[in-house]
Specification:
Distance between the termini: 27 Å
Radius of gyration: 27 Å
Strand order of the largest sheet: 6-5-4-1-2-3-15
Shape: globular
Oligomer: single chain
Number of helices: 21
Number of strands: 15
Helix content: 40-55%
Structural class: alpha/beta
């Protein structure tokens, strides 16, 4: 089976998001052939290079989302009229949805609006295919004026009517970046049109090529979201004008709904993501939860060890940033020390994000204020019961050593998606105390204690309860490890996707017409063994995906085609 793996800012780049998950998936499904279609987010990411690629990756095509040169497409009067029509329709749908709640929209009206958005999107895609690209048109004054007309139209919501010229320019620029995949040449017969299945590693721009492959060639689409892209867009800190935020939120909402509507299967990574997808219009029958696969082998020694960790130590492991709420953890630890004076807290992690370093400095100052250095005697050196450490030092050479350093692992976050650190602690057989955020309750499943976020007293009481009961800690740790090995390993993740691939292809096969050199169809030219890796079809035949091969002359904006080098050459 040929899989078109669609990524945005991820695999195969070294510093890409979700790159490790994609690499494990591709390596675990060696019986399939993969073609990677990667959208990069920055020049720095492209310069960082790729991870070593396994032999089942037959080719990699890349294209930048961070820049786009002129495509050189000269649009005539008819093409300009088509662009104005389709872009104007897209803008009208976006403006109409700028102040609507999907839950309040009648079902019939929601379907009609979805059809309008889809027709406008695919109309632009067909125009890009016929004319060789839309980069110039999406940057043109025509696009800005179409947005302005939609915002000033009768019945437009207040959020759209308040948009001024700078706001319209900002929205047009954002839409041009988001719609750059329309101008790529990935959808020809030797590209995504020839694969058996498109697998988008996220929603948003990564899934857009999959939508077009389905529209032009009938290729089924599988969308995996371990973090819902629409939710990420909503939560992103942005100092844009309210009109800009409202219009862009409406566009991304429409795009997410279209992706969910056209996808054959959507695989959320947890129930939290699943609820978001349902709220955004995903059909419940298409949703199939597949938990992220994690490597349990590096935690096996700690998890299977009978040695008892320090019974008086709490461990926190993760990225140091405000969302982790270490301030509440430090205040909770002050309460813990009143009940258990010998307890120590080890905070293991590095600062992350633009506020990470400043937040770490604030937490260090708070720890010094709450816990002055203590000494056992008059001639002993004082020591603080809270330590800030990083993995890689002599005391904590590995991640597993960090979890092994204490009897209880604590998670104090106020915002969390899938709690990777919590699963790692479970692999290590550690009892845990966590805040009820994101997918924490779903992951824990009764094998740890869960308290409300931003509640230091509740966090302290739960930690004290486990510190005072070693038998309970042991039972919870053993149950947590058993649950993690059952649900969150790489093996279960790969097996789940292998089954989903077969199910989708069996229900939605791509019917291709095979033509000879004269352009005549060849019946029975695609036997069942064509899905087996190898050259089974004759060299004189060429396959044309359903939807025809009548593509207009003139090259679209060209993506970068790269043949992967041998693994040792990287």
């Amino acid at each position: 089976m040929r899989i078109g793996l669609l990524t945005e800012g991820g695999y195969p780049y070294v510093n890409g998001d979700a790159g490790l998950w994609c690499d494990r998936l591709v390596r675990g499904l060696a019986q399939h052939e993969f073609e990677v279609y990667a959208l990069s987010r920055s020049e720095r990411q492209e310069d960082s290079g790729w991870v070593p690629l396994p032999p089942q990756v037959s080719r990699v095509l890349t294209a930048p989302l961070w820049t786009a040169g002129e495509d050189g497409a000269g649009h005539g009067r008819r093409a300009r009229r088509r662009f104005a029509e389709h872009y104007g329709e897209l803008a009208a749908v976006v403006c109409a949805g700028a102040a609507k709640d999907r839950a309040d929209t009648p079902e019939g009206a929601a379907v009609a609006e979805a059809d309008r958005f889809g027709n406008a999107l695919y109309g632009l895609a067909e125009l890009a295919r016929d004319e060789g690209g839309l980069v110039g048109a999406l940057r043109s004054e025509t696009a800005v004026r179409a947005l302005e007309r939609a915002c000033r139209a009768p019945g437009a919501p207040r959020a759209a009517r308040e948009a001024r010229v700078p706001d319209l320019l900002a929205v047009a620029a954002h839409l041009e970046r988001a719609l750059r995949p329309l101008s790529l040449d990935w959808y020809e017969d030797d590209g995504l049109g020839s694969v058996d299945l498109c697998h988008a590693a996220s929603g948003g721009s990564a899934a857009l090529p999959g939508l077009l492959a389905g529209h032009f060639s009938g290729v089924p689409l599988l969308v995996t979201e371990y973090g819902v892209r629409l939710r990420t867009h909503y939560l992103a800190a942005d100092d844009s004008a309210p009109a800009v935020r409202s219009l862009l939120a409406a566009f991304h909402g429409r795009l997410a709904a279209e992706i969910y509507r056209r996808a054959a299967v959507v695989t959320p990574g947890n129930a939290h993501a699943r609820r978001w997808q349902e709220h955004c219009g995903a059909d419940r029958a298409k949703l199939h939860t597949v938990y992220p696969g994690m490597d349990a082998s590096r935690f096996a020694e700690v998890g299977e060890s009978s040695e008892c960790a320090d019974p008086d130590t709490l461990v926190w492991v993760g990225r140091v940033e405000p969302a982790k709420d270490l301030v509440s953890l430090l205040h909770a630890f002050a309460e813990i020390r009143k009940e258990e004076p010998k307890t120590r807290l080890r905070i293991v992690g590095s600062p992350a994000g633009p506020e990470g370093a400043a937040y770490l400095g604030h937490c260090r100052a708070l720890a010094a204020q709450l816990f002055p250095d203590e000494a056992e005697g008059l001639h002993a050196v004082g020591d603080n019961p809270v330590s800030f450490e990083e993995i890689g030092g002599p005391e904590l050479p590995s991640l597993a050593d960090a979890y092994a350093a204490g009897a209880v692992t604590v998670l104090s976050s106020v915002v969390e998606g899938f709690p990777v650190g919590l699963v790692e602690a479970m692999f290590c057989g550690r009892a845990t105390v966590s805040t009820d955020v994101g997918a924490v309750v779903e992951v824990i499943g009764g094998t740890g204690l869960v308290v409300p976020p931003r509640n230091p007293r509740a966090l302290a009481e739960a930690c004290v309860a486990l510190l005072r009961d070693p038998e309970r800690r042991e039972r919870l740790g053993a149950a947590a490890r058993a649950r993690a090995l059952e649900l969150f390993t790489v093996e279960q993740n790969i097996a789940a996707f292998h089954g989903i691939y077969l199910e989708i292809v069996s229900r939605c096969p791509v019917r291709r017409v095979v033509l000879d050199e004269a352009g005549e169809p060849l019946p029975f030219a695609v036997p069942a063994e064509a899905h087996v890796p190898g050259r089974w079809t004759g060299p004189r035949a060429r396959a044309v995906a359903r939807g025809g091969a009548g593509w207009a002359a003139g090259p679209p904006v060209r993506a970068t085609t790269v043949v992967p080098a041998p693994e040792g050459a990287r």
